[in-house]
Amino acid sequence: MYKSEYHISGMTCQGCVNSIKKKFSSDDRIISSEIDLSSSNLKLQSTVDLKPENLNNIIKDLKNYRISYKNISSPGISNKIKISSENTTEQKKFTPLIISLLIITLLALVPQIRDGFNIEEFMKSIMGYFFVIFSLFKLLNIKGFATSFSNYDLIASKLPIYGTIYPFIELTLGICFLANFGLLYVNVLTLIVMSVGSIGIGNSLKRKEQLECACLGSSFNLPLTPITLIENLIMAAMALYMIIKLI
User: Fold this and answer.
1) Of 3.40.50.150, 3.30.70.100, 3.40.630.10, 3.40.50.300, which CATH number belongs to 2-90?
2) Domain spans, the chain
3) Whole-model pTM above 0.70?
4) Nearest to 140 by CA among 166, 167, 102
5) Which partner for 137 in 60, 121, 155, 217 could form a disulfide, CB atoms 3.0-4.6 Å apart?
């Protein structure tokens, strides 16, 4: 195995990173790729010695980017300390997601502790805070989110405007849940949105594409993993439960 580092010029946003990584994921010679937008640094693990011209050929359709400089380590067994450090870095990427989910759970639990536990009220609060908080992350950089989202969502990949309005859809759903407004219709829309999203995520995971998860917008370098799929499926399941209760 070869571990190499390169420099990429021409990147301006997280969408650029996602586009390049999508190209790399389609090449069988590349095991994994990690791109840091702030430093324009590219780290690759590959089965062969890839030169900059090889990589430029892979991304030639993108036109805006240029890869240069290579610092290759010896093939063979990787250094254990380096791998341990990389694993720690990967784990830290999920910290914002974990913190957000904990805050959402605590916000939903507080009224239950005060008034007595009610599963329907708890679910409404979970879904309401989930949509509001996650939509705010997306609204920080709508263009970056829309680009990342379109890489795996079924609708956004065909209709780009959907990625642009999606944060506002989530925000509206969240407010409606917290305000107890139009709950039957809100839950039906939630079930549809989360189910469609789950299909797109599942397809990308099945193809083993290395993509950025857009659930927290484009501000965090969060990889698309089964955790994202589980999130969507749980939201869809809660919406279905609420629909059954409301009918």
Assistant:
1) 3.30.70.100
2) 2-90, 93-246
3) no
4) 167
5) 217
